[in-house]
Amino acid sequence: MENISAQITQVAPLEHYILLSAVLFSLGVLGVLLRRNVIVMFMSIELMLNACNLLLAAFSAFHSSAAGQVFVFFIMIVAAAEVAVGLAIIVMLYRNIHSIDINELSKLKW
Amino acid sequence: MNALLVLSIAGIAALFSGFSNNKKLTFAIVLLALAAVFTVNALDWNTSVRHFNDMLFVDNYAVAFTGVMTLTTFFIFALFVDYKESVEVPNAEIFTLLFFSLAGGVMLVSYSNLLMLFLGIEILSIPLYILAGSKRHTLTSNEAAVKYFLLGAFASAFLLFGIVLIYGVTASFHIDTIAAYIKNTNGQTPALLVAGMFMLIAGLGFKISAAPFHFWTPDVYQGSPTIATTFMSTVVKTAGVGAFFRLFAYAFPAITAEWIPTLAVLAALTMTVGNVTAVFQSSVKRMLAYSGIAHAGYLLIALVSLSSNPASSVLYYLIAYSVSTVCAFAVLMVVQHVSGSEEVDGFKGLSKRSPFLAFITTVAFISLAGIPPTAGFFAKFYLFSGAVKAGHLWLTIIAVLNSCIAIYYYFRVITAVYSSGSDSAPVELGTVQKAVMIVTAVLAVALGLFPEMIISLL
């Protein structure tokens, strides 16, 4: 583990990993806020989760602790479960209104 | 911890009981299973054991909150016996989803590792995304599911990034290690850690529907089947507040100066937005959603007044809120069925049609409004006096003013019940439904008469 840690920080300092993850995460946030297609929004959320994964792996190597990498596996599993449920919901929506545009959803308003 | 095992097995048992096509058998299995969960959980009282390599720490706090959630779920399951709204999913599957969701809730109130916090939130939420959309051919239900799902996943991503940043600074996911690390920095808390903490606030604030993150709540509550709404507004709120409180009381007590001002503003904003918007609602279901937001605001006050040791008043508030809300929703389910609408006007003339139902409505809404001698009053009393003790006078004043606004919209329902309506056919009630209403109403009053029972627990 110490070996990896040394190698990784030789190639690129930790700040670069933090910066890259923050940029990816922000891109995901922007995607969710700006795009109106449910599937694209969903992809943006996955991008946010993967930004977390990347940062976790980097921190894990930096701290020489395996806990972070184990966490990554849990995130992948949860993301897979979310994909299953999320796509089912989107299919259900498409069958009813033949569209996956979030703007079509305006039945509920105060 | 045993409660968690029993819950997971019960979920699978409930799923398989669906094969028998015997509704009574399913109900018997799930209600017995919940009673077993409650008993097994109660046996953990005063043991404080750490489980799964210190992932879960089942202390009295965890046991008490698990007890509240199990009891509330028991009432909700019982309400299902006489449930009339058509849900296009077999009963057994709904029970299974609720069992798994409750298991997530149990993890949320007993975690001692941030991994369990994340998993708990996901296990709590994913079954609810399905339940929100369980009326497949109804557009409002579809909309509720999509909104809940997208915003829920969005919020958990924020929570996750917060956890990652905290891990990056402290090299640990364990809340005790994090607390020790923060203590050792002697006020020089790294900016990355503070940023992570605020992202955690955003993620958890979403779950308990605190103010800037509350936009999903009314839509989701209104669009979901009423039984799912009842679960979301009681058990999910209990779990969310339990997790929120546990995180800040265990992991970040050393840097209160960093988060108390933010949470105080959030609390004030949440209360005000919830109460003021609730006044303008014509749908009772939507009004109860906004009232749920307002109650989340009151509960945040407890977090802010951490120095007055408010764990037991949070517990008491959540019990009082849960039983009153279940009671109110039980009435709403009946009214929805007999009048075909969830508007306040649907409650008109209820006192003529069923004096019993009118009385139950009055007790439930009086307790939600916080008027003595009901539990809702003492719950607010303990929370607000804790806030005064911790020196947050301005927050207490805002909270009291908000409680006055709340009385207005709760009483709109009560006055509708006692005014004359067009329909005069008597309302038929199922036996179990009636029993749940009586028990929750009695609890709402009895807890108000003997608050020491709960207040002395933690």
Explained architecture:
- The complex is a heterodimer of chains A (110) and B (458).
- By secondary structure, chain A is mainly alpha-helical.
- Chain A has one domain (2-104): Helix Hairpins.
- Chain A has helices at residues 2-11, 14-34, 38-63, 67-97.
- In chain A, α1 packs across α3 (38-63), α2 (14-34) packs antiparallel against α3 and α3 (38-63) runs antiparallel to α4.
- The mean pLDDT of chain A is 89.
- Chain B has helices at residues 2-17, 23-43, 60-80, 91-110, 114-132, 139-170, 175-184, 191-207, 216-223, 226-250, 256-279, 284-304, 311-339, 350-353, 355-369, 375-389, 393-418, 431-449, 452-455, and strands at residues 49-51, 56-58.
- Chain B has a two-stranded antiparallel sheet.
- The interface between A and B is large, with 43 and 43 residues.
List keywords for this structure.
heterodimer; A: 110 residues; mainly alpha; Helix Hairpins; 0% strand; elongated; B: mainly alpha; 2 domains; 76% helix
